[in-house]
Design a protein that fits this description.
One of its GO terms (molecular function) is peptide transmembrane transporter activity. The protein is α+β, with helices and mostly antiparallel strands. It has helices at 63-72, 120-131, 167-170, 179-185, 187-192, 237-246, 259-262, 293-302, 305-312, 342-352, 372-385, 397-405, 425-432, 444-452, 458-475; strands at 7-9, 43-48, 74-75, 77-79, 85-87, 90-95, 101-106, 145-152, 155-160, 175-176, 200-206, 210-215, 228-233, 251-254, 269-274, 278-283, 317-319, 359-364, 390-395, 412-417, 478-490, 494-495, 510-511. It contains 15 helices and 23 strands.
Length: 512
């Protein structure tokens, strides 16, 4: 899979310019003040956009909480910043011939921060407890698991209900708890005083305010340079930027429109890296004029993606040719899209007998896609240039998401997909399999190919991905638009590599 290094931009030294807003002057935390002047800082304060629901990794599966769990618990495997799979609690993993059984070999001598040994029994307990609650937030990642067992002290065996080549990636999202401690204190008490085997331990938890972590001196792996981490929920985009500029935050996610306000100020630097998501147009290919593949192709041909990424988004995104981002396993350079060709779009519309019928265009006015209204308006203008009429239908994110999940879209709609496993299986299931929220076409060929990629590995799997995604582009079932960047404001001396999935991992982080 191609590697895409992060794009990092150091800002020029200069006086802090007035921003016209109040600065976030302090962020509450349980630690003492940072290192004395002249010393290299060993504490990092980072903003997370929302408050996690629980510190119990068995019950909590929201993506934001993984920024905490990656530091305080072990998972069987890790996904690196650029989307690769790497050992963590497990040193190796091996499938049987038909990919329906996976054996994971664990490290020896791993203990939780309270001294309890972490063995295969703890792994089996953690997974089985999740499997016992189909309503839980983590169950979806394990829906392919039929059973889990400890074969011996250092071997865990997963038996699946069907072949699944990407199963190890799903284990990167499941944290392992010390079974005896968890059962002794109970889930509620464990969430108040969590115990894990990760490189950090919980120092204090102030719900809604801060989650303070301290380096685990008994950690089995390499000791991180950062001794203390404070993860603080800050929901306001403006407050996150101002927190970094004022020095009360060391790093915080920011939106594309905020990058220019930080640029040029010596108080901060900007990190920008391609994400694991794709913003796309969904198409109800069973509705009205969209049943004609020529009209669907004309829509794809009419949209100038460069105008969106280079103009509207200021270069903080890259045009997409496939429904998977470059960082995602399954991405292939062999996937091509129709390109930008207004003349050909007009020819196809004429061949199809399109007479200007209005096509509904749904989008969210807030939430998951920055500048979503402006993106929708730009697309509307592009389509109008070739004679395609769309009716803009803006709604709040919650209502828009509900329409997607209920398959209520009548025309085209703006959406995005970023797989938490950084693997193509999750989005392809949603795009092309029968029960998928975004699958209007119900094409048997796409369902067959989506299933086929689970039963093969390596280059053979990539070939299936390429065949499916090229076929999808040819049929106009979706229009991939662009891959957005994750953007961060940070302390000018921070040495850090952002992850494609937008989560925090400071185990390889330091200050200059």
């Amino acid at each position: 899979m191609p590697k895409h290094a992060r794009r990092r931009r150091l800002l020029a030294t200069g006086a802090l310019a007035a921003t016209g807003t109040l600065l976030l002057t302090s962020c509450a935390g349980g630690f003492d003040e940072a290192s004395a002047e002249g010393e290299t800082p060993t504490r990092i304060v980072a903003a997370i956009p929302t408050d996690p629901t629980s510190m119990d990794p068995i019950r909590s599966g929201a993506l934001v909480v993984l920024s905490v769990f990656f530091h305080t618990f072990d998972q069987l495997v890790a996904i690196t910043a650029d989307g690769e799979l790497a050992p963590k609690l497990a040193t190796e993993w091996t499938p049987n011939d038909d990919l329906t059984q996976w054996d994971f070999t664990l490290r020896e001598g791993v203990t939780a921060s309270n001294g309890e040994a972490i063995t295969a029994e703890d792994v089996a307990f953690s997974y089985q407890t999740i499997l016992d609650d189909p309503t839980g937030e983590n169950f979806a990642y394990l829906s392919s698991v039929s059973s889990v067992e400890a074969v011996d002290e250092l071997t865990v065996r997963f038996t699946l209900n069907s072949p699944f080549s990407a199963f190890p990636r799903n284990t990167s999202l499941i944290s392992v708890v010390p079974a005896d401690t968890y059962q002794e204190v109970g889930a509620d008490a464990f969430a108040q005083d969590p115990i894990g085997s990760g490189p950090y331990v919980f120092e204090s938890i102030q719900t809604g305010v801060t989650y303070d972590l301290a380096r685990n001196d008994d950690y089995w792996g390499e000791a991180p340079a950062i001794e203390q981490i404070s993860l603080q929920p800050v929901s306001s985009d403006e407050s996150r930027v101002n927190g970094v500029l004022s020095g009360s935050l060391d790093v915080a996610p920011i939106g594309p429109t905020q990058v220019s306000s930080v640029d040029g100020q010596g108080a901060a630097q900007v990190f920008s890296a391609l994400s694991n998501g794709v913003v796309f147009l969904g198409v109800n290919s069973t509705s009205g004029v969209l049943t004609d593949v020529r009209i669907r192709e004309a829509i794809a041909l009419a949209i100038d993606k460069d105008a969106i990424t280079g103009g509207l988004l200021g270069g903080l995104a890259e045009p997409a040719s496939a429904m998977l981002a470059p960082a995602v396993e399954g991405y292939s350079d062999d996937v091509t899209d129709p390109g930008f060709n207004q003349e050909r779009a007009r020819e196809l519309l004429a061949e199809a007998g399109y007479a200007g019928e209005s096509i509904p265009f749904d989008y969210a006015t807030d939430g998951r896609i920055p500048l979503s209204s402006e993106v929708a308006q730009t697309i509307q203008a592009s389509l109008a240039e070739v004679g395609i009429t769309v009716e803009l239908r803006g709604a709040d994110q919650q209502a828009h998401t509900l329409k997607i999940r209920s398959k209520e879209m009548q025309g085209i709609y703006l959406n995005t997909w970023a797989p938490s496993t950084v693997d193509g299986d999750l989005p392809l299931t949603d795009f092309y399999e029968t029960a998928g929220n975004n699958n209007y076409a119900q094409d048997p060929r796409t369902a067959e190919l989506a299933a086929e990629q689970r039963a093969v590995t390596g280059d053979e799997r990539l070939d299936v991905f390429a065949e499916l995604l090229n076929y999808s582009n040819e049929q106009g079932y979706f229009v991939p638009l662009y891959v957005p960047m994750n953007n961060y404001a940070a302390d000018p001396d921070l040495e850090w590599t952002p992850r494609a999935d937008g989560l925090f991992d400071f185990t390889q982080t330091s200050f200059r």
